[in-house]
Specification:
mainly beta; five-stranded antiparallel beta sheet; eight-stranded antiparallel beta sheet; 207 residues; Jelly Rolls
Length: 207
């Protein structure tokens, strides 16, 4: 589409563009992020030894300190119409930190692209980056992946599937060693930050 009007201080790379079909598209730094929200309380769990438990008082889900890679919360996230095509998305886990250590938070993901064969293999990604520095008490912490997840080639309404795991024994080999966080690790929420550049897609299934 041809851009017929550019709005912004730098109309070379960072601007809002009105295109000839009437669509408004953000370019460069004009894009923004939104959350795909998933409360861990309502997600399905594969929990063969009851090592993931719900704390009804705190409204959290607790991974015990002997949880394995067979114990995980499951969720599917749809890549909505406003997502910037081929952009990177950034998953986060919101949890309560009560000591100067971090659980071996691990996610496994696979991307299901519409019109393509089903993806069966899972990719391991450690959640090794903390947003805040722990000092004392109970801290509302956010842990994330180091570099995000690419959605290159994924069309409108493709699906990202996730497993959220506490890999206490470092079975994945993605961590420096076994989990040094003692006791339960309590988490509230899992979300994915998605870069958006339009109000939606031009067509039902095509950006």
């Amino acid at each position: 589409m041809a851009t017929v009007l550019k709005i912004g201080g730098d109309t070379t790379t960072d601007y809002m563009g009105l295109e000839d079909d009437g669509s408004l598209v953000a370019y460069g730094d004009a894009t923004c992020y939104r959350d795909e929200l998933q409360s861990l309380l309502i997600q399905a769990k594969n929990n063969p030894s009851d090592k993931i438990v719900v704390d009804f008082v705190e409204g959290t889900v607790a991974w015990e300190d002997n949880a394995t890679t067979s114990d995980y919360a499951l969720m599917n996230v749809q890549l909505n119409h406003d997502r910037k095509a081929n952009s990177t998305v950034y998953p986060h886990v919101h949890w309560i930190q009560n000591q100067n250590a971090t659980p071996n938070w691990l996610i496994q993901y696979r991307l299901q692209q519409n019109g393509s064969a089903t993806t069966t293999a899972w990719t391991d990604v450690p959640m090794v980056s903390n947003s805040f520095t722990y000092v004392s008490g109970n801290l509302n912490q956010i842990s994330s992946t180091a570099s995000g997840i690419s959605t290159t080639g994924a069309g409108v309404s493709s699906i990202l599937q996730f497993r959220i795991i506490r890999d206490t024994s470092n079975t994945s080999g993605e961590f420096a060693g076994a989990d040094t966080y003692t006791g339960d690790a309590d988490a509230f929420n899992f979300d994915v930050h998605v870069e958006v550049d339009m109000f939606g897609s031009r067509e039902q299934f095509v950006k």
